[in-house]
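Work Package 4 report. The design task specified in the project plan requires that, given a folded chain encoded as structure tokens, an amino acid be chosen for each position. We show below one input record used in the internal validation round.
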């Protein structure tokens, strides 16, 4: 259950940093509410991945990663909505959240 220095831990942390930067731009453009929603879900992915490494059992580990997956799915939803209705979302963010979801599904299945 050790994810210390793992690819998923590093990628979700870097993704959270990118989300913080993007939501700062959204706030500057006065899109406060959707920026708040995106910031919450986008940073929660990595937080739950870190929490998973402290899991007391395989079931707990998988549960925490399942929460990360749900947050990633929600983040993808907000990014798609923003991209369609508010502002062009950097394609790297959309690609990265998709890859993170794929990685999480693989880790959960193989645990």
């Amino acid at each position: 259950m050790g994810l210390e220095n793992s690819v998923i831990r590093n990628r979700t942390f870097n993704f959270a940093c990118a989300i913080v930067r993007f939501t700062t731009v959204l706030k500057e453009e006065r899109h406060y509410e959707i920026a708040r929603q995106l910031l919450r879900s986008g940073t929660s992915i990595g937080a739950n991945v870190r929490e998973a490494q402290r899991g007391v059992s395989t079931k707990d580990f998988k549960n925490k990663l399942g929460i990360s997956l749900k947050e990633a799915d929600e983040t993808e939803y907000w990014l798609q909505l923003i991209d369609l209705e508010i502002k062009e979302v950097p394609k790297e963010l959309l690609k990265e959240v998709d890859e993170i979801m794929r990685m999480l599904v693989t880790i959960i299945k193989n645990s």
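The chain has a mean pLDDT of 95. Validation will be extended to a larger panel in the next phase.
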